[in-house]
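Please check this today:
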Amino acid sequence: MDITSSATAKASAPQLPLSERVQEALAIAKRGVDELLIESEFAQKLARSEQTGVPLRIKLGLDPTAPDLHLGHTVVLNKMRQLQNLGHQVIFLIGDFTSMIGDPSGRNVTRPPLTREQIELNAQTYFKQASLVLDPAKTEIRYNSEWCDPLGARGMIQLASRYTVARMMERDDFSKRFKNGTPISVHEFLYPLMQGYDSVALKSDLELGGTDQKFNLLVGRELQKDYGQEPQCILTMPLLEGLDGVEKMSKSKNNYIGITEPANTMFAKVMSISDVMMWRYYELLSWRSIADIAALKAEIEGGKNPRDAKVAIAQEIVARFHSQQAAEDALADFVNRSKGGIPDDVPEVSLSGAPAGLAQLLKQANLCASTSEAMRMIEQGGVRIDSAVVSDKGLKVEAGTFVLQVGKRKFARVTLTA
């Protein structure tokens, strides 16, 4: 896909000078990004905005495929907030129409489309959660069904005529599936077209997305040119690795940190990442300046305990989504747990059937998914009753009230009756 044609066309146009303020804005925009295309064009957009006082229109589209956001989603939201703080108009676009198609990005099979009911249910929580990062008072929220539904069959055919199958097959996941003989449904070709049409409808100057969205973002750029608009620039953000430090953060992979999780859970999960991955979280999630992070890194390399830096990023994240007091309490709770203590916020569970097998109790208290998993945890020394390790898989627990613990973070205060 040719992304340089508009840059070449504009090469003869007078170039606006880049003021110090514009250069600072460009540096903020580029922090932690994977790519900014085309940087020279975006610099001119910033300069024009400064000269005219008209803010840039900056778009982020998210399909409400799940009801909850995690820290991986906030990587691009953080960038939106930074641009919002620079005075530009950010548009939070909920893809209620495109969700019914299903985004094929990075997939080797057709993605099942969501029902209207699922989409509406998920969308209800999206903006509320995104507002924990964005300034809701300065955010334009839109739904792409506004302009996609009115297109109708005739409009959809006309839109499809603006793009060729050959260009669509330039997309990596489509070409791989075609070569492997894996089915590609015709409706999947519509997804990047509809996402691109969103940029036309919104007249966006810059669109943000993950690295897996690059093709779709470029389609938007091409369609804008076809509709006689100035093409948007595109900014792709890296995909944040999850708690395992390998796979991208994903609820389905259970390596995620949800932004609405309890403060103590959120803090403990951040503390569980590796010392190496910690710097990735600083780069993509922290509001600290690049200079501050570099100074902190130098302190660690000079002998300071990495745990101190990890505590700092954990507290920063918890404070953002809860409060500073919650961050302080989460640290105290984490220290207490690390010393073998029992946290204050232990869920209460009432069970009957004493004396009861320990493995069965662990399952009934939702601390283990199955009795076989419970047996395995007991065998590995991962189960405690009132802070004492229990290694007897055949233990029968008598009636009473006690705290069951599995691993470092799962607790339940159980009241067992006959």
Observations:
- Confidence is low (pLDDT under 50) at residues 2-11.
